[in-house]
Write a structure and sequence with these properties.
Blueprint: E1 3-6, H1 9-20, E2 25-31, E3 34-40, E4 46-53, E5 59-61, E6 66-71, H2 72-79, E7 87-92, E8 99-104, E9 108-113, E10 132-137, H3 138-149, E11 154-160, E12 163-169, E13 174-180, E14 186-191, E15 195-200, H4 201-211, E16 217-222, E17 228-233, E18 239-244
Antiparallel strand pairs: 1-5, 1-7, 2-3, 2-6, 3-4, 4-18, 7-8, 8-9, 10-14, 10-16, 11-12, 11-15, 12-13, 16-17, 17-18
Helix pairs in contact: 1-2, 1-4, 3-4
């Protein structure tokens, strides 16, 4: 049994949108201290690590750990009907075993959703040593990714002590985007040793586009030809982190 209530539907809707980029069926852990999700996309190229402590919720009642598996796209349909300052309550209906979604604001409405079988897979956090840590604005990063998308479907990110370079090359055009340390877009850059790695632009752009609604700041960590970790700093407490496997270039 659980009862979770957020006072601002937009907060829940933005987070559900970010999660939906990678997974259609999400298995949340509802624990006494908060809501958690760690999952990989079907192709196992990307991973999401999400946490909301109970302090984010207006009301949080989960005395016993449980799992909640649902179709995120279907939940989003309901959340899109809720206004910015309307409250959303999620609870389990004892009799039907379905999820109850109650939206209250100008008027009240109640929806029910069938639950799915929870995944038993435990996805571990990747244990990776990173040589690069770049703190960027989500706007600046998003614009750089959009520039690279004009010419290719993948981008190489190259980090040196004073700059971050994104380069993309297609059959007709090429693009090089240089972001200097200390600029409006690149707030900080820590380089243990220069590194470069290539990533899918379709994944990167979708992740950044969706997560930017929840955060103004993104921190990228990577090493040569290793996965990139993108942590989106939350305005409230909580964690929203993505891992994306590199595209290995063949000579």
């Amino acid at each position: 049994m659980f009862k979770l209530k957020v006072s601002d539907a937009k907060l829940l809707r933005d987070m559900a949108t970010a999660i939906s980029i990678l997974v259609d069926e999400a298995t949340f852990k509802i624990e006494p201290d908060g809501l958690k999700l760690r999952a990989m996309d079907p192709s196992r190229v990307a991973m999401i690590d999400f946490e909301w402590p109970k302090s984010i919720f207006q009301e949080y009642d989960a005395p016993q750990p449980s799992k909640l598996c649902l179709n995120i796209s279907e939940l989003l349909k309901l959340l899109k009907r809720a206004g910015k300052e309307e409250a959303v309550e999620l609870s389990l209906d004892d009799k039907t075993g379905k999820l109850q979604v109650i939206v209250t604001g100008k008027y009240a409405r109640k929806f029910t959703m069938s639950l799915l079988e929870p995944s038993e897979e435990e996805v571990p956090t990747p244990k990776i040593s990173f040589n690069i840590k770049a703190k960027t604005t989500t706007t600046g990063l998003s614009q750089a990714i959009e520039d690279a998308q004009l010419v290719s479907d993948h981008v190489k990110i190259d980090a040196e002590p004073e700059k971050l370079t994104l380069s993309a090359s297609g059959d007709i055009m090429g693009a090089t985007i240089t972001i200097q340390k200390g600029s409006d877009a690149l707030l900080d850059l820590e380089v243990k040793e220069p590194a470069k790695a290539t990533f899918s632009l379709s994944y990167l752009s979708e992740i950044i586009k969706a997560a930017s609604a929840t955060s103004d700041i993104a921190t990228l960590e990577f090493s040569t030809d290793m996965p990139v970790k993108i942590d989106f700093q939350q305005t409230k407490e909580g964690k929203l982190t993505f891992f994306l496997a590199p595209r290995i270039e063949t000579e």
